[in-house]
Amino acid sequence: MINEEKMKSKNNILNKGLALFLGMTVFSCDLQDANINPNAVSDAPVNVTLPATQANMTWAIGDFAAQSASTLVQYMTGTLNVQQNITIYSYVPANFQATWNNHFYAGALTDLKRIIAKSEVNGSTHYRAVAKIQTALLLGNLVDLWGDVPFSEALNPVEFPQPKFDGGQAVYTQIFSLLDEAIADLNASSTFSPSNNDLIYPAANENAWRTNSIPKWIKAANSLKARYANHLSKVDPQGSANNVLAAINAGAFLNNADDFKVIFGTTPDAAGPWFGFLQGTFGQNNIAVCEVFVRKLRDRVAVGVHDPRLPFYVAPNSNGQFVGAPYGSPSIPAGTSRPGPYVFSPGAPTNFMTYAELKFIEAEARIRLGQFDLAAAAYNAAVKASVLRVTGSANPAFEAIYASETGASLQAGGLEKLFNEKHIDMYLQTESWVDWRRSIPAGAAPTVSGTPQISPAPNNLTNGAFPRRFLYPPSELDNNASNIPETSLLARVFWDL
Hints:
The protein is an all-alpha fold. It is built from 19 helices and four strands. Strands 1-3 form a two-stranded antiparallel sheet. It has a two-stranded antiparallel ribbon with strand order 2-4.
């Protein structure tokens, strides 16, 4: 189970980060009103509730869900307790209780519903728009991680104490509708707008937010539409690709400055999920950088010349070497590297979606449509954007090798090359597990790997079959069992054929 002391520590870090940010911005309100406890913000105005929802969203996507997905695609390997259970495919429903309830449902989604309801009464259309985009992102993560989930009857326990589980495809339909509605709301007038209480695209005041942040939120909405259209690559390869390009053409991210992310602060008590986890006892003893991933980046340009992102993703050990732990190891071997400063620093971002991801999505869609020259341009832009985002500078020598694709070079094995390169860019993000599952051929046996090619831990408990989803938590198993559609970690979400 998730340790209670860890949860308390995490909430303390989050509350302090919010306090630092909100202390001078919310009409002299008591900071306790912005606590991530949903009961504490139930009567708060939308300007106070918004940052609490963004904080909860960050922990929902970037904490245990990211740890688990990162272990399943072998960025990391668990060596003790829950993390080891993930590694050997023996995880249990209780592992997911806090993430499902505290952050997704009773946390962010409940408060976002309140923002939407209050905004419809007081005319704060721009708050409603941001809330709808966040709701869409959270629903997308729920479906991608669990499959069918409650939505249409969720968040209303009085009327629906046992909400039905909506099919993943139906929830995706709602996601696209929410994003379209949000774009319309952002283009409409509003009685008042966010400002520096928006943790994602903050601005000094409402006028500055309307001028500078609204365009970024619209780009984020269109970029998310491209992502979720791309998730349907197995369901409808051609149609999903065309929908990806339509969303991009409507106005999506243009460069790294548009990235959809949050950084709470640059001090340890205001840091995001990965830093808080890795600096604590759990992160130091229960999980390690995986040798499978480190090996992909070492000597990538030439012997002794690594991928430029390696020292940012993985810190050198005391001997100046980059060394990971074998996948499935029951302990962390001496000399194993720690995660690098791109993740393990107080100011590390929690990325919800980046420009580099969008360009990889565009490249994939164009490959599927046979537009290989345009695919190559998007692919090369994605690699360059990734290197720049992670390292802070371009790397011409690396880019001459890995960002120099042509239409001809992508015609054979282009998707495999893309999934491998995108995997490196998406280090420690839940979205990488989505890509890995999408890259498995439709109808393949459960022991067939996606791209990148990985092998189960030697002591796995599924006879080599790869997990395809999280498990529903005890709160659903105990109180809503008649509605639960599936209880196997080998069952596939609707887009994973």
